[in-house]
Amino acid sequence: MTRHRRRPFTPAKWGSRLCGAGIPVLAVLSFSAWLGISRASAAGYFPPPESLGGWRSARTPAEVRKVAGMDPARLEELRAWLLASDDRGFAAVVIRRGWVVLEVERGNSSRTDARRLASVSKAVCATVLAIASDRSRRGLTPRRMDFEDPAFDFIPWAQPLSDPRKARITVRQLLNHTSGISPEATGSRNEGAWEYLLGRTGDPRTALLAFDPGTGCGYSSHALYHAALVCETVTGMPYDRFAIDALFRPLGIERWTFHFFDGGPGIGRHPSHGIGMPARDLARIGYCLLRGGRWAGREVVPGWFVEETSRATHDVRGLEMRFHMNARAFTDGWELPARLTGEGGRSGEGIPADARSKPGSGGQILAFVPSLDLVVARQTGGSGDWQYEEFLRRACAAVVGVRDR
Fold first, then answer.
1. Residues 368-404: pLDDT tens digits?
2. pLDDT higher than threshold 90 for residue 5
3. What residue ranges define each of the domains in the chain, with the CATH number in brackets?
4. For residue 160, is the peptide bond before it cis, meaning its omega torsion is within 30 degrees of 0?
5. Position 352 pLDDT exceeds 60
6. Long-range contacts for 308-312 (Cβ within 8 Å, ≥24 apart)?
7. 166 contacts 174 by C-beta, under 8 angstroms
8. Which residues lie below 8 Å from residue 86, measured CB to CB, with a gap of 6+?
C-alpha cells in the first residue's frame, strides 16, 4: 500500500482559502491564532508504534520553527556537536511538542538498535517500580508496597541478611543511592551471580554496607538490581515481564533487551534492571512523563511519581562518593541536572530547574523538560564518559526564545 504524506496544515494556507471564501480577515486571524496555539500545545498527540509510522517529524526549517518552536540553525549546530562529541556509534533524537526536530545516527539505528542503555536503565526501573507500587495500593498485585517500606521484606533470596543494617533500607533508598549497598566507589564488580550481588559470598564490598542507610550517597548499580527483585515479589512476575506489560507495550515500545543474572539453588535466574532500547522508543518514556505519566488518555505512570522526581527524595547533603556530584541531584532513579554545580566536571548551567535526566555510561541519556515540552534521547550501547549535560543544554538553547528569557 502506498502511503501519501499530506502537506502541512498551516494557518497561512487555510487563511488564504477562508479569505477567498469571503470570511472576514479578523475572523481568519483569530482562527489562525487559535490553530497556532492548538498545535503548539500538542497536548493530545501521542505517537503510534514505529511499525505504524512512529513519531511525526518536522522536516523543513520552516516547519521546525513554526510547529515545534525550535531554531533550525542551532539544531544544525547541535547535529555537528553530536557528531564531533566522540567517535562511538550512536543514535540521538530531540523531540519538541511531539515533533522530532533532530535525528542523528552514526552506525546505530534510532528505530531498531536495542543494545544496552547502561545506567539509563535505573530511571526506567524506578518508573516501573512506581507503577508496581501504585497498583499494589489498589490491591492489584500479590503484595502491597510503598517506597518507604523495608526493601528486604521483598527480597527473600537475600536471607539471612549479610549485614543486619540492610533490614532498615527502604525501597526508596535503593532508588536514590542512599542505601549503602555496594557503592561503585568501593570497587565492587557490577556483574556476577546473584549470590555475589546479594552479599552471600563473603566479599565485604557486597556483604557489608558502606554506610548506614540514609546517611550517605553512593551511586549503586547493585541497589537497582535489588529493586528489580522487589518488583518481582510485589507483582508476582519477573521484572522483565512486568515492565513490558505495564510500561513498554502501553507506550507503543516494540524493541527491547533485558540483562539476566544466574543464581544457584534457592535463587535461580532473574532479570536485572538492565535493559536495551532504541532511541526513538526510549524517548516515549520521557514523553509519557512529560505528559504527567499519561498516554492517550490513560495514566500509565502514576502522577505522584512524576511529581516526586522533580525534587531530591532524601536528606543527604554533600557529594556523592564516586562521581563527586551534588547529592541533592539524585531523586527516585532520575537526576536533576540543574542542581549540578561543577563538582566532578558536570554543571547544570543553562538547564531549566524542572529538567529530569538519566545519563548512562557510553554517552547514553534520556531527559525531559516539562517547562520546554522537550525530550532528548541518545543510545550508544557502549561505555565511557561523555558530556551529558552539554547535549541537554544545547537542546534547551535551541528552543526559540530560551536565551532571551
1. 999 999 999 999 999 999 999 999 999 999 999 876 5
2. no
3. 120-404 (3.40.710.10)
4. yes
5. yes
6. 308/332, 309/333, 309/334, 309/356, 310/336, 310/354, 310/356, 311/336, 312/176, 312/336, 312/339
7. no
8. 363, 384, 386
What span, in angstroms and rounded, lies between the C-alpha atoms of 23 and 25? 7
Q: Is the pTM of this model over 0.70?
A: yes
Q: Which residues pair with residue 170 across a beta bridge?
A: 150
Q: Place 18 in a pLDDT band, splitting at 50, 70 and 90.
A: very low
pLDDT in tens, 193-242: 999 999 999 999 999 999 999 999 999 999 999 999 999 999 999 999 99
Rounded to the nearest 5 degrees, what angle is found at the Cα of 40, between the Cα atoms of 298 and 68?
Answer: 105
With a cut of 80, say whether residue 3 has pLDDT above it: no
Q: Is the pLDDT of residue 10 over 70?
A: no
Instruction: Give CA–CA dist 70/211, Å, rounded.
Output: 46
Find the radius of gyration of the CA atoms of the chain.
22
pLDDT at res. 401: 86
d(CA 38, CA 33): 9
- Type of residue at 272: S
Q: What angle do CA 181, 243, 320 make, to 5 degrees?
A: 30
- Do residues 239 and 247 touch, judged by C-beta distance below 8 A? no
Parallel, antiparallel, or unpaired for β 364-369 and 374-379? antiparallel
CA distance 310 to 330: 10
Indicate the pairing of strand 294-295 with strand 298-299. antiparallel
